[in-house]
Amino acid sequence: MSAMPIIEARSLRKRYGATTALDGVDLTVEDGRIVGLIGPNGAGKTTALNAILGLTSCEGELKVLGRDPWRERDALMRDVCFIADVAVLPRWMKVSQALAYVAGVHPRFDRARAESFLARTSIPLGKKIGKLSKGMVAQVHLALVMSIDAKLLILDEPTLGLDILFRKQFYDSLLNDYFDGKRTIVVTTHQVEEIQHVITDLVFIRAGRIVLQSEMDAFEARYAEVMAHPETAAEARALGPLHERQVFGRSIFLFDGKDREQLEALGEVRTPSIADVFVAVMTEGNASARTAS
Amino acid sequence: MKGAFYWSVRRELWEHRAVWIAPLAVACFAFLAFMFALGLGHFAKSGNFSALPPAAQQQLMMMPLGMAASMVAITGWLVAAFYCLDALNTERRDRSILFWKSMPVSDLTTVLSKAAIPIVVIPGIAYAIAIATQAILLVIAGIGLRSGGADFATLYDRLPVVVMVVSFAYGVAVHALWYAPLFALMLLVSVLVRRPFLWIIVPAIAVQLLEKIAFGTNYSGALIKYRLVGGMTEAFAPGAMQHPITQFSQLDPVRFVTSPGLWLGLLAAALFLYAAARVRRSKEPLS
Asked: Which of A267, B52, B113, B130 has its CA 20 to 30 A from that of A200?
């Protein structure tokens, strides 16, 4: 629809001394997408997000909503929100002060909306953030962010350290109360299974490079997992699976772009989880890792 | 609508309540000490108050008032120094810098709002508290000295009230401007390093030691001393500070605004603050 992508990155590079955090990242995110950015620790996820948010400089071309984030962070933040892990709200601040402050500095913040979100919780507005539980702090932050009429929301491990009930609730609120199909969300998490049915696009990052970028529909059409019968295992292996693992003595093969009918002859076929494909892609070309797994 | 700067200053006051609590506590202490002195008969010892010559009456009254005001002001400057060494460091230590940076507030606005605390807000608060304290002490003295034959009107008459109020405002403003480069430097250090206290004190001592060893001189020490107490000598008539300020002629604003020390200091302050904003842009949480 809109001509300009929300995020447009061309050969982003970032080095910290001897380590390369970003090694030529190309990424385009169109509006209305929910992008999951998945990668192992140290793959460059946070560096990539920090570059998008203008928190770190980097080489290459980067435009977010048409702006250079490093030079125009403050202007960009009118249209971009982010939650960079859970515990960044100042502990000395009262919840009511946080509301007043954001209402004061942010032109797109709807204080009444934030208050109504908080009214659904048991969080007292007069309490200091440092006195709230971790889950409550995350709720406060989410209430603040969901009340800002932003075009792009960046979430870096937003549910880290929260219990499972709250994690579920977090994504439910995000989808039901916030996402309207026009906003764009980029999320990183280690809890890949939580976002499988939330995201519309998937990006794998490894060692500072993007190794896979796919829409979820295409992802589901492309990858197939076959639980092979014992007698068809060798045949399956001959087809060149991406990955093989053993579960209860049966071989499970992951195939990339193979014909469904052909695979169905080998055993039960199903859509793999992101986590399974992630493991396969991350260990690709790494022979020792493949035999070990 | 009030802007980002206003709310940034407000949030500093929410976080750093010592900014007004410490001068207020010292004012309460001065008040108690004064009551104590009154109870011990400090004034009674001087015999019959009304029998004293006017100059002695004036001195007897001005001494405690001046002391109370100076204590409040000095506390204010100390709080300001501690504030500056902490201001851009805590937000990195507690990771809240990521929250502040998620708001549409520029690094320069943030740094300027933090600089406004020691240069504008604390002097203003200290001044208001000091003047209020003096007024209260004066009223109490008036009541206390009635037994010595003094009435409030005489007491008030003996004191150069207008000169006191104006010259104290002048002194506070002079020091706010004079110390601005020190506060700006502390803010810069607080964003640059993990341990700002160490990095402001150790170099100040090390430079003097090295100079002493290498050249046998102490120009750096003189420079530091000039920045710490030079505001007094530049802003007041020579020798004026040896006596309580009772006349406007003891003030020398012309010399102060024409002193290179003031303008070089303000230029340095501007550079330090600009540098602090630039450095903050690339700073991440300490963890």
From this structure: A267
Looking at residue B150, its pLDDT comes to: 65
Q: A251, A281 in Cβ contact below 8 A?
A: no
Split at pLDDT 50, 70, 90, the class of A292 is very low
| Candidate from A81, A88, A93 with C-beta closest to B14 | A93
Q: How close does chain B come to A181, measured CA to CA in Å?
A: 23
Residue A74 has its nearest CB partner, among B7, B95, B106, at B106
Q: Do the chains contact at A50 and B109, CB–CB below 8 Å? A: no
Per the CB < 8 Å rule, is B15 touching A84? no
Chain A residues within an 8 Å CB radius of B93:
none
Instruction: Using a CB–CB cutoff of 8 Å, tell me whether B286 touches chain A.
Output: no
What residues of chain B, 79 to 98, have a C-beta less than 8 Å from chain A?
91, 94-98
The CA-atom distances, in angstroms, between A60 and each of A8, A26, A70, A228 are 11, 9, 12, 46
ipTM: 0.88
What residues 76-95 of chain A have any CB closer than 8 A to a CB of chain B? 76-78, 81-85, 87-94
Whole-model pTM: value is 0.88
CB contact B102 to A (< 8 Å): yes
Q: Looking at residues B11-34, what average pLDDT do you find?
A: 93
Distance CA A289, CA B51 (A): 100
Does A97 lie at the interface with B, CB-CB under 8 angstroms?
yes
Whether residue B286 contacts residue B194, with contact meaning beta carbons closer than 8 Å, is answered with yes
Task: Summarize pLDDT for A42-53 with one digit per residue, the tens.
Answer: 888 889 999 999
Map chain B to HEC letters.
CCCHHHHHHHHHHHHCCHHHHHHHHHHHHHHHHHHHHHHCCHHHHCCCHHHCCHHHHHHHHHHHHHHHHHHHHHHHHHHHHHHHHHHHHHHHHCCCHHHHCCCCCCHHHHHHHHHHHHHHHHHHHHHHHHHHHHHHHHHHHHHHHHHHCCCHHHHHHHCCHHHHHHHHHHHHHHHHHHHHHHHHHHHHHHHHCCCHHHHHHHHHHHHHHHHHHHHCCCHHHHHHHHHHHHHHHHHECCCHHHCCCCCHHHECHHHHHCCHHHHHHHHHHHHHHHHHHHHHHCCCCCC
Measure the CA–CA gap between A157 and A80, rounded to whole angstroms. 17
**CB distance B10–A84 less than 8 Å?**
no
Residue of A55, A7, A3, A54 lying closest to A186 (CA atoms):
A7
B188 and B276 in contact (C-beta within 8 Å)?
yes
